[in-house]
């Protein structure tokens, strides 16, 4: 009996499926990342299967289970394929290979996802889904007795609050090869896939830049959707001058555009990338990537595929993993705390999660969908339509440009999504303390600029009080260089928004020269050049305050200590040596001097208490903070009113022209 099918249903059935999330595997032999791709220890029935086969005479002895990551890596036979021994079971319920169903449910109009698995021998494919609470439910399974391709059409309706799909693969009496697997969705009527430009800003890291070129050029699928790879070189060690440049550049051909300009920081380089993308006019998206990251290129494809299906233009970003502990996730999402006006991990998430210790299936909180305020610009893709509407980056050199952009976009009704399965590896923040080095100026200045421009709280909420508290902590910790540049930051904020573009190219020189006058900022590699340390014992107050009251008592004690004369012997010899990991304010506040090692382990600085410096800086910071708070409403109005202009194309192009690098052969400025 035939069934009549109306024209609309027939058209729906004929529309093509687009693969948006392929199963991928690491082929570089790095066993540290395996837990992100494959779970070799799912709940399984290996023992029962083995005993049954032994009784039936199909095997002479139960198979052994590989016990190490090195052995497991031998299962991987290609970028999209793996070989599974008889009676083994693996799960693809992992960070990179599970399907983030709740994100597709909430941000796209897609109602069904199709899973396709291709195997070459007898195998069972078992599909699971998770709830927002992290409980796993078996959905469906198929036994492919002869191998081949199996498909599952899976609804997305019940994933509003969270949840993933994934599948397990079970081999029976013979080995089985997973030839490919992927998740696909039906293309809507009139669907036009987007292409992108990738913008990378680099400063004296030509080796990293060349690696980026090689990585992208080595992925043919990325190259297909890549209009331009825009490399903004702001350093003195030029990428073009490297011996390998011509060979690497030839692979990308005319897709590669190298721009050399003066150093105006990450915000300047990324804004240049936005500007070049708009000028070129071809790309639907511009992706911002840090120069010092290692990237999973499949994440680029996933970000584009996801953005192609979102209901409205959406900023799509990726996660950051630890470059040194490669299975450790930095955060699962980024938000800005309105009351403090400071960034934080998204609520209901945890920092520094190690997938090697707890995989996706055994991490309940990761199954809840997370909404973010912004995505870090280690990997962030912005539709060019949003760039035209919202503008370019805040002209702040570094720090807060990504957070502010997400908040600004949110005020325009634009959503940012941090998409699971799209990620890079980046050096962790724990390996440096940029709140006390030259970046302290930018942390302070830019937080105030962002708060004045966007804070919904009266007088900025707690932010001004935290700002002065940070200065006090630095002062009682003998970190006078950090306070000096933070005070300059406040003076610049008070001068108004015009200073942002006018100082972007030269403020760093001032910061570095100023810090050079302070002993706490001078790092010496040769530790034997310092005088002998007086004591090898523990300093007082060697435990972190556990309560607010204890913190206040410690801080008050540290302040009162500043009234006491400095010990003479502490000026001729450091009292104690303090490792960077222990150089916290409650320890340093109990000392008159200390030999403090740097966060990167390259050397140490000799901190010395200076009563005169302390008194002068304390008075300055109190005066500046009182002035800023008294004039908050007026300054907020100035920055908000000027925001469209100083993040706009015209202002940025004037800055690009001012830092243009001369072409020595033609004598022309390249802008």
Describe, in plain words, how this protein is organized in 3D.
Helices cover 34% and strands 21% of the residues. With 671 residues, it is of the alpha+beta class. It folds into three domains: 17-186, Spore Coat Polysaccharide Biosynthesis Protein SpsA, Chain A; 196-430, Spore Coat Polysaccharide Biosynthesis Protein SpsA, Chain A (Alpha-Beta Complex), CATH 3.90.550; 440-629, no CATH class. The protein is globular, with a radius of gyration of 28 Å.
What is the percent of helical residues? 25-40%
CATH topology description of the largest domain: Spore Coat Polysaccharide Biosynthesis Protein SpsA, Chain A
Name of the CATH architecture of the largest domain: Alpha-Beta Complex
Question: Can you tell me the CATH class of the largest domain?
Answer: Alpha Beta
What is the alpha-carbon Rg in Å? 28 Å
The main pleated sheet reads as: 8 strands, mixed
Average of per-residue pLDDT values: 89
Low-confidence stretches: 1-5, 44-54, 56-70, 663-671
Strand content: 15-25%
Spatial order of strands in the largest sheet: 12-11-10-13-20-15-21-14
Give me a quick take on this structure.
This protein has 671 residues and is of the alpha+beta class. 34% of the residues lie in helices and 21% in strands.
